[in-house]
């Protein structure tokens, strides 16, 4: 018997070939497994997106436009397909930075980019920023080398993902056979409402209803959708007291759907207040009054410094309201009144205005000062409200002298020997609005010193060859000179000399043949000013020896 020492060349070739075949089969198996996982991910994602689109349709009556559906993932799930898990938007073959694999206007092929084709109804409204009445979602199946489609159903499906439905033709709204239900709602209590509606035309045993409830009449807040209702009545419990709820209902059959019904609410919007008036009854208070509005349980007064500004607001249950908060003196205010009831607010009333008066200044006194040449008065102690301006009126010797906003401290110049009495009044103003005047409680006076020249007759003097009378002159020296110049005359005779005294002088005038001589100191000039005086004297014409 012959003993073998190893494999022959043929045997080695056979073994290597077998190993190669087994390895190839393993690679093919792994590839098919990976493709199958990708296909399962695509199918689940498309099914989730389709359910979200049907929920969108239930709430809005249409499908998103191309512009809306192709937004980035964060925007799409926040504004359009609300609540959708963003991972459902990304296909297995998408790039790492892609957040939304849905594309509109681009045809999907078996080879190339991995995405979901969103095919709308073909209208320009659908292709732009409007809405679509139908859609088809198209995605890739690697194992079968096919392109799969999911068409719109026009029926709400709730929020839970469901298997992709069998494609079915979409019925346009204009071809609906079901009629439109007529909806009414009744508030059973503060927290319970019953919605009732009529069965529409062509309803059958298979017809169900979708009832949508919201907390505003545009159905964008507090939206609750109930599907598959088999009756024409639905009770909502556990509601918030004194809140408005809005309802609409849609009939649904296996192959059709109706348009949404009328919108019904449990509350009635109050009427707009009328006959609104505004009266300024104090410098910082305005009273608003109006007629009671139907269905109102309260009122809101909105006001500001411009029409429609609505900077401030205050509420009341009455139809008259004195407003003090924020009201300033000398200001025009604008007001609107809104009726309220159970969280609903009426349309605002017509705008009314009122302008507050300005209070007069409180009593004040004039402060005074003089420099020997003039008199200065000050009305600085007069006070006006913040935001208003003082307006001054001054009288000199009871005649209007100065008036305006700048005369808080005026100065009145005086001539020698001149006197003046100053009085003051102040008002407060803002724009065209002004208060009454307040008179100062005192007046101020001053007389500037003058020469005060006086002439007095002295004794007759009959001595030697002189017969005459002494005339004495006195004055106030306001210039400080000791040698004033004096001019005097008797009848037509003029004499000029320097007085020896700064404040007095004495002169003897010769007598005449008849009594009543007129003597004039017609100019006493002491440098800074001059003065004149006249006196009638009786000459000593009876003196013996006088000539």
Q: Could you describe the 3D structure shown?
A:
The chain is mainly beta and 547 residues long. The chain folds into five domains: 38-158, no CATH class; 178-265, Immunoglobulins (Immunoglobulin-like), CATH 2.60.40.10; 275-351, Immunoglobulin-like; 367-447, Immunoglobulin-like (Sandwich); 454-537, Immunoglobulin-like, CATH 2.60.40. The protein is built from four helices and 38 strands. The strands form ten sheets. Strands 25, 26, 28, 29, 30 and 31 form a six-stranded antiparallel sheet that branches. Strands 9, 10, 12, 13 and 14 form a five-stranded antiparallel sheet that branches. A hairpin with a 2-residue loop joins β15 (274-282) and β16. The longest helix has 52 residues, at 9-60. It is elongated.
| Shape annotation | elongated
**What is the arithmetic mean of pLDDT?**
84
Distance between the termini: 211 Å
Which segments are poorly predicted (pLDDT under 50) over 5 or more consecutive residues?
155-174
**Which band does the percent of strand residues land in?**
35-45%
Q: Enumerate how many helices there are, as a single number.
A: 4
Main beta-sheet strand count, sense and barrel state = 6 strands, antiparallel
Structural class: mainly beta
Helix fraction?
10-25%
Strand segment count = 38
Number of domains: 5
Specify Rg, calculated over alpha carbons: 55 Å
């Amino acid at each position: 018997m012959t003993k073998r020492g190893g494999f022959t060349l043929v045997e080695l070739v056979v073994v290597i070939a077998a190993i190669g075949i087994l390895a190839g089969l393993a690679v093919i198996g792994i590839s098919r497994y990976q493709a199958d996982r990708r296909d399962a991910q695509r199918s689940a994602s498309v099914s989730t997106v389709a359910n979200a689109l049907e929920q969108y349709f239930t709430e809005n009556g249409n499908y998103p436009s191309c512009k809306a559906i192709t937004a980035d993932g964060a925007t799409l799930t926040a504004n359009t397909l609300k609540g959708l898990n963003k991972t459902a938007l990304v296909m297995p073959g998408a790039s790492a930075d892609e957040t939304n694999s849905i594309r509109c206007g681009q045809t999907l092929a078996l080879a190339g980019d991995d995405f979901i084709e969103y095919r709308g109804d073909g209208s320009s409204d659908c292709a732009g920023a409007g809405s679509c009445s139908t859609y088809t979602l198209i995605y890739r199946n690697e194992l079968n080398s096919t392109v799969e489609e999911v068409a719109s159903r026009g029926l709400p499906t709730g929020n839970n993902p469901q298997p992709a439905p069998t494609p079915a033709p979409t019925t346009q709204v204009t071809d609906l056979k079901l009629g439109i239900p007529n909806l009414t709602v009744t508030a059973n209590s503060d927290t319970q409402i019953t919605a009732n509606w009529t069965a529409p035309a062509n309803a059958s045993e298979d017809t169900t209803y979708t009832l949508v409830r919201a907390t505003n009449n545009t159905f964008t807040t507090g939206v609750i959708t109930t599907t598959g209702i088999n009756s024409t009545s639905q009770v909502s419990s556990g509601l918030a007291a004194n809140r408005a709820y809005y309802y609409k209902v849609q009939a649904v059959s296996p192959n059709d759907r109706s348009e949404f019904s009328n919108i019904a609410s449990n509350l009635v919007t109050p009427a707009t207040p009328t006959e609104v008036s505004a009266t300024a009854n104090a410098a910082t208070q305005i009273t608003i009054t109006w007629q009671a509005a139907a269905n109102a349980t309260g009122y809101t007064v909105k006001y500001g410094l411009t029409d429609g500004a609505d900077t401030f607001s205050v509420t009341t249950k009455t139809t008259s309201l004195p407003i003090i908060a924020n009201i300033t003196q000398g200001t025009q205010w604008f007001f609107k009144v809104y009726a309220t009831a159970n969280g609903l607010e009426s349309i605002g009333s017509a705008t009314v205005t009122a302008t507050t008066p300005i209070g007069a200044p409180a009593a004040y006194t004039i402060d005074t000062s003089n420099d020997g040449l003039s008199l200065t008065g000050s009305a600085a102690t007069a006070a006006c409200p913040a935001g208003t301006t003082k307006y001054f009126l001054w009288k000199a010797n009871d005649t209007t002298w100065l008036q305006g906003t700048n005369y808080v401290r005026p100065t009145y110049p005086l001539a020698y020997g001149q006197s003046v009495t100053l009085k003051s009044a102040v008002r407060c103003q803002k724009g065209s609005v002004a208060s009454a005047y307040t008179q100062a409680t005192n007046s101020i006076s001053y007389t500037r010193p003058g020469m005060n020249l006086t002439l007095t007759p002295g004794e007759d003097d009959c001595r030697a060859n002189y017969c005459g009378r002494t005339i004495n002159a006195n004055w106030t020296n306001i210039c400080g000179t000791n040698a004033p110049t004096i001019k005097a005359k008797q009848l037509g005779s003029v004499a000029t000399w320097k007085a020896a005294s700064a404040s007095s002088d004495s002169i003897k005038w010769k007598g005449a043949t008849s009594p009543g001589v007129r003597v004039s100191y017609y100019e006493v000039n002491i440098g800074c000013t001059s003065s004149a005086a006249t006196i009638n004297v009786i000459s000593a014409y009876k003196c013996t020896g006088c000539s």
